[in-house]
Amino acid sequence: MATINQSNIRNFCIIAHIDHGKSTLADRIIEKTGLLTSREMQDQVLDNMELERERGITIKSQAVRTIYKAQNGEEYIFNLIDTPGHVDFNYEVSRSLAACDGAVLVVDAAQGIEAQTLANVYLALDHDLEVFPVINKIDLPSAQPERVIEEIEDVIGLEAKDAPLISAKNGINIEEVLEQIVRKIPSPGGSPFNPLQALIFDSIYDSYKGVIVFFRVMEGCVRKGTRVRMMATGASFEVVEVGYFGAGQFIPCEELSAGMVGYLTASIKNVKDTRVGDTVTDADRPCDSPLPGYKKVNPMVYCGLYPADGAKYPDLRDALEKLQLNDASLFYEPETSVALGFGFRCGFLGLLHLEIIQERLEREYNLDLVTTAPGVVYRVHKLNGEMIELTNPSNLPDPAVIDYMEEPIVSAEIMVTTEFIGPIMELCQERRGRYLGMEYMEATRALLRYELPLNEIIYDFFDALKSRSRGYASFDYEIKGYERSELVKLDILVNREEVDALSFIVYGGSAYERGRKMCEKLKEEIPRHLFEIPIQAAVGGKIIARETVKAMRKDVLAKCYGGDITRKKKLLEKQKEGKKRMRQIGNVEIPQKAFMSVLKLDDRK
Amino acid sequence: MRQETLSPAAAPKGPLGLYIHIPFCRRKCLYCDFLSAPAAQGTIERYLRALDAQLLWEAANCKGYEVGTIFFGGGTPSLLEPQQVAGVLERIRDCYRLSKDAEITLESNPGTLTEEKLEGYRQAGVNRLSIGLQSVFDAELKALGRIHDYGTFLENYRSARQAGFSNINVDLMSALPGQTLSGWMDTLRRVAELLPEHISAYSLIIEEGTPFWDLYGQDRRPRDASVPPLPGEEEERRMYEQTRELLHEYGYVRYEISNYARPGFACRHNVGYWTRRPYLGIGLGSASLMDNVRWKVTEDLDEYLNCFAPDTAGPEGVKALLRQEEQVLTKAEQMEEFLFLGLRQSAGIFVGDFRRQFGTGLREVYGSVTARLEEQGLLVFYEDGRRMKLTERGIDVSNYVFSQFLLEE
Q1: With an 8 Å Cβ cutoff, is B277 touching chain A?
Q2: E strands of A120-232, at which residues?
Q3: Domain covering B14-274, topology
Q4: Mean pLDDT of chain B
Q5: Beta-strand (E) ranges in B209-360?
Q6: Domain limits, CATH 3.20.20.70, in chain B
Q7: Interface contact A571, partner B, CB < 8 A
Q8: Quick one: pLDDT at residue A37?
Q9: For the segment A147-193, what is each residue's pLDDT rounded down to a tens digit?
Q10: How high is the pLDDT of residue A39?
Q11: Residue A575 and residue B337: Cβ atoms within 8 Å?
Q12: Nearest CA in chain A to B276
């Protein structure tokens, strides 16, 4: 290692739209650089978690170090830093990019540029990364590399004439990518003799070593025994171990100096102390200022998570605690619902983040969950000048003391083929979008710009977008800020009792429509009882919609024949079993899935 | 070899009920999901030999019991010739202790009965005849896939009286395709005027795996316009309510959800089921309860026919076929059954019986459940709290009520 100097290091990432082949290319690079034999390769080395592999997306960024012997005879250290591929994790992406000096842009030879491609390229260029394109899936019958090269040059303005034409899947032309990494991506700057300044781009929790911090050294060096300080959180630790990333394993080393990427452990108990984007410095010889760009990420989407079986509450708490060790952006606090009992109000970066956490809780921790309708953070301005950030609709103050409310707005970019511009504009209109403009990317594709309320896109906007464009539209957004809006709390009354877990905040103009659909949906979900059950939607105490679940007229087994009691008992047991999955509200039993049904109200697709 | 009595809470051994299953019929009715099918040539004879062998095999397990009731059910037991029925009864008299006043019922269907057969059954010892009439309207009978018409029934009924049957049940069925309330009342009235001792009035249930299921399905809606609709829920419940009122006028008392009898003529065999008295099933697919163990006989006809053949697996093989789904009832299960079976009876249960059988009071185990059901108007205590029964509304939704009595494991 000592034989390799700073000018032979290449820190880079791969950016791409979902499914354009980022992970596959990463695998090939690792394979070709020879640190691993083909046999050692798991299919996709970088995607560690089972869930990631199934969903085909990268949740947590990770890194791998490999050694490449270039055609010029020299050996280069490649630090490949993986980035999450979803808008929910935009901030994580930006920190991963900040740890790199260059980026390989993968574009699908058949599909060309997508909204996310653009968003990621701009993000990379914002971080002054050297970006060069690679055209992937060149062996597909529908591949049109010339068209894509032209598009990259026209739309992004990147030189693409000598872009490697590759197939990551079939290992075609990977050598050329490696050579271009050496040629086009600059070596890292910085001096090992300056005070330590390192950027945290990720951290994970290990039950033996504590938090393992992933970082890039910008200046100075760090070794075992260095007393380090996290500049934003102020936490200090003595380094126990430093090292770099083998494929799927941590390899300890003496020290990490300017330009290098690696990890450290320091008996850190909680990832909260090692925020992504924070600067690690030497406590005894600190640098002047932290690296720019740190921000504390705030959850954007909140929902209630309740154990289906109330007795599992402690299990859910433990599971959330464990997940949070690894995921500082996951927020939770205990809450109580009349309908659902004890649970947690949880905050997420976005709906995908929510779904991932929910799935991990169910799968890895074997919990059965009831999720309430996800909502965004509203700002409630009271007449007395006080402002409340509202994450749970139940906590909305009395309308009489509210001056006005604000909701978060996003700027969205939607890439779509021209034939679907109409339907997509219609969709954005329905979702209270504000049209900002449209640019033609090429003759058949356009980029639509809209401002949309976040609460209109967290449910099913992406699905609606896909179905109205036959899958051709792609979408990216970022939070723009808060805007004043006419918002109301929609309450649902079952048998004249308000069910807190079903309340949600909605735009005043959509309240009637949403209320009506909620009532219809709940009518389907709530089984008939011994008595008639009115289901009502109300805004501010005024009923705006109503449905009725008729009373159960009969439920009787006329015959009980020949002494076959077992069969009859099975029938009763089935009935009782169904009851277990119900929640008691007053004297009405509501199936747990009814609480999630609000998520699936859109039938306009 | 039988399990010993399991706990001091076990019910005292009452008179034993013997159920004899005859799984044959002339033709399968369109709604029928019983274990029954037309028999191939010679099958009935082979079946009776297997029955006989099973009777012999089980006799050793019934030493302590006196047989109080025998019930030939089906299928259509009246497909059997009188001497065949006589043969079965003879075997029982030989190997079991048969009570002198045993109730011996034979189920029959019009169209399989003749004067001679009826006399023969009576002479063989059958003292209670159950006739599956279902409806007095030939169109309805045809729609059900029955093989007989009303005229045939009348003839058979009179012959049965002539043969000396003084305890006759007639099976009727409400909620038939296209049936109206007034049509059902006609059926009831015309049958009640014949004054049979017992009437069973079931509502038609659309069972999965029957032709009716294909016609109506789970939602009970006709699959196409040519199929007559089933009466709606409201109509059906009115049929049920008025059944009780009308039969009451004719002197019948409803003693179980679907069973009506003139005083003193409740079916003792069936009452045994509701009160959890021991019973032994003989024949294909029949169920048993003895010493708080439940089991069933195999439902595979070939297996049953060959059960005692010399080349079967020996004593263990026989046992495997005759003791299927064997289940030793826990105390909790016994309590559940006590309630969901006992409450099928109109008079309900004696609260004190619960403590006698289980050593704990009903209220200690089910206090909150009964209180809630009482409040919902589904259950009442009467005779100064000594008895408990379903209300009329409770009967309507009895499955719901019964499911409340299931205990957590």
Answers
A1: no
A2: 130-136, 197-206, 210-219, 221-223, 227-230
A3: TIM Barrel (3.20.20)
A4: 92
A5: 253-256, 259-261, 279-282, 287-290, 293-296, 324-328, 349-350
A6: 14-274
A7: yes
A8: 40
A9: 999 989 988 888 999 999 999 989 899 999 999 999 999 999 999 99
A10: 42
A11: no
A12: A563
